[in-house]
Amino acid sequence: MLPVLIGTTVCLSTARAADIPVPTSPPVQQTAPQPSAAHPPKAEHIIVHRVSDSASGNQPGGGLIHLQDGVKSVSTVSQDFISKQAPMATAFQLASMLPGANVSSSDPMGFSPNTNITVRGLDNSAIGYVLEGMPLNDVAYYSGTPSQFADSENYQEIALAQGSADLDSPVLNAAGGLMNLTFRDPAKKAGGDASVSYGSYNTNREFIRLDTGDIAHTGIRGFVSYSHGATDNWRGPGRDEKQHVDFKFLKEWGQGNRASLLGSFNTTITSWYPEPTMDSWESDGIKGQNNLLAHYDSSNPENGANYWRLWRDGERTLYGGAPVHLTLTDRLSLDVTPYAQFAYGNWPGGSTMSTSGLYQGTQALSDTLNLPGAQDGVGVVRADYTQRSYRSGFTSALHYKTGWNDFVLGYWYDYGDDNEQQPFTAVQTNGYAPDIWAKNGKDVIRLSNGERLLGGSFHTISQTNALFVGDHMSLLHDHLAIDLGFKAVMMSRDGTNSLPGPQYHVASNSMEPLPRLGVRWRIDGENQLFFNATTNFRAPDQTALYNTYDPSSGEMYGTGSTDVRNEYSISEELGYRRTGRWIIGSLTLFNYNFTNRQISTQAVQNGSIVSTTMNAGGQTSRGVDVEIGLRPWHHFSPYVSGEYLHATIDNDLMSGGDLLRTRGKIAVRSPTLQAAAGLSYDDGHIFGVATVHYTGHQYATFMNDERVSDHTTGDLAIGYRFSDHIHLHQPTLRMNFINITNEHYLSGVASPTLNAKDTTGVYGTTIAGSAPSYYIGGGFAALFTASTGF
Length: 790
Hints:
Blueprint: E1 10-14, E2 44-48, E3 75-78, H1 79-82, H2 91-94, E4 101-104, E5 116-119, E6 128-131, E7 134-135, E8 155-161, E9 178-183, E10 191-199, E11 203-211, E12 220-232, E13 239-253, E14 257-271, H3 278-284, H4 301-304, E15 312-321, E16 324-327, E17 332-346, E18 349-354, E19 359-360, E20 363-364, E21 378-383, E22 386-402, E23 405-421, E24 424-426, E25 457-475, E26 480-497, E27 505-522, E28 527-538, E29 548-549, E30 556-558, E31 567-579, E32 583-595, E33 598-605, E34 608-615, E35 619-630, E36 636-649, E37 653-655, E38 658-660, E39 673-682, E40 686-695, E41 698-699, E42 707-708, E43 711-721, E44 729-738, E45 746-751, E46 759-760, E47 766-767, E48 773-776, E49 781-789
Parallel strand pairs: 1-2, 6-9
Antiparallel strand pairs: 3-8, 4-5, 6-7, 8-9, 10-11, 10-49, 11-12, 12-13, 13-14, 14-15, 14-16, 15-17, 16-17, 17-22, 18-21, 19-20, 21-24, 22-23, 23-25, 25-26, 26-27, 27-28, 28-31, 29-30, 31-32, 32-35, 33-34, 35-36, 36-39, 37-38, 39-40, 40-43, 41-42, 43-44, 44-49, 45-48, 46-47
InterPro entries: Beta-barrel_TonB, Beta-barrel_TonB_sf, Plug_dom, Plug_dom_sf, TonB-dep_rcpt-like
Membrane topology: Multi-pass membrane protein
Domain TonB-dependent receptor plug: 68-168
């Protein structure tokens, strides 16, 4: 903080941050002498020495680490690092270097929805995703699809809080932490940015962003961006295509008042990457049976169901929010964020179906279907699985500052309307099945009474009410900070299953008290200690409530539960931070205790791949995270991160009428060791980033009888920025090389199982094994990008 100067004229100038040493302690506060009539004040010129953490190429660790001052562990990726990566990189890929983050991808370019992220062994559905105050998680499954969130050019920052969400965050499932996404603010002057990219697998992408500047002297400014991208599948047949729009409009006035309107629209059609078992991976690798068929086989229905065009996934999403901050008085302020979402998708798969002996739910049908190319009473169909979701709500937080207290009182309300159905579409003899979106009622298979033939049909209304109260205390000249908080969450689900059968109405209600405590002790200007203890809960996916049926036999694929048990967790963090002249880093010890641990997995329902959860009982997870970044030295900025994790299952798990001996086994998707390192160079014109990431082996079953091997991958980016020329601002050329060693590997566990091999249970019965499935990591890819501001 600058000394207060009374009765003087102050002129500020800045020196180049890279050439200025960073002060290791705050300046001493001094009282300026009062001027007198005999000695009038003289103009003083004060040079403020500061380090800009936002200037391109001047950020610690190349933009992979940021100064932190809170009571919990947070790791940050800034625009300095983001701008050097492949432009279609998702938020998962951009955060993959951070401690605890393990990204399982299926393609190198980031188009495919076949992806997952685990943080400290907790998967995608255990993490909250928030864009400037509005939630992005799926209303039914809690998961996030990062390719839908935003274009990378529009991110200002991606912050990953590994241990817990903020008190006011509108998320229910964040035992695995919170990914907080921030858009850049619109520019104050009119202009824009544009880029084109081309690379491996016939990948092309075009992006343009227009900034309005100050609109008609109203103080409102905004940006709108559009991108289009497409790529061939890197293995097997198929092509992905995506169109995306981001926007943000902002108005600032008075003493910190701020209101914005922002959002994203995404529409995409992607093709499925088959997820192999270990046997098929060891026999075929990235070829053979681990890929879909390029041509339709009309002579064999089983082969015909594997035709790639039957496995294309169409999705459309729209997110919109309006965060507002109002300074009501010197002590009182209000934050309100209303939001709304719409999502529609079809996750289809090729399947076979009998032409007769059909069922609608458990009701036998007399209909005989006319399926083109049917053989021996069996034909090929596309098993569609559609989800239409509407979501809206708001968060509000009233802050009151007095003395060393900053009180907050808030309320969050969320309303979700989710409709999921599984119709079927007949496949022609050439492999064509109309309407990839399955929205046109005349194209799906209908019965003689005009109704659609369905494998599942349920409609769920969910409502969440949360009250929270907290106090941030700043003591001993802010050497000591204490955060106390309490959140009471009430969640209800009310749904109907419209298929004939024993189930029609379903309901679940939850109420959980969630206390928290955080402490930060600033030892001096460079060293801090922090401690954080939080509680979290999560209700199972809504599919756990419903029966699903096989229309060929009337048998149930899954049985809805009337005894839904919520996951509850208590987590603690104890950490040390250093913010020195050259080194910025942290070391965090963590501990989690879970009851009714919810594990996200996948199930095949009539040919469609659907998400579901399994109750893994109790779990204890302990470990340590570390990350270190250096401030730029001769334009070089190194960064390293790592994690040691010991996650164990606390009890034996039920399978059928017996128990599996899982107590003490290592939890699934929990690699013991992870490490990442990056080296950035940026002199303002020439720049480059080299990164390498190691992930240790991870188990795919609760019995630890099958696992993914460890793997190491590396990426490289190099480029050149030109000086401004006429109306072009910093024209830039860059090359990105992804998985530069072309490593062929299993990147993660798609569907864990209890046991892969037949196992004798506690009571002596033989429990049959079930093979887990895996993601195959994307191969080598190169991408050239030309971009410029204007």
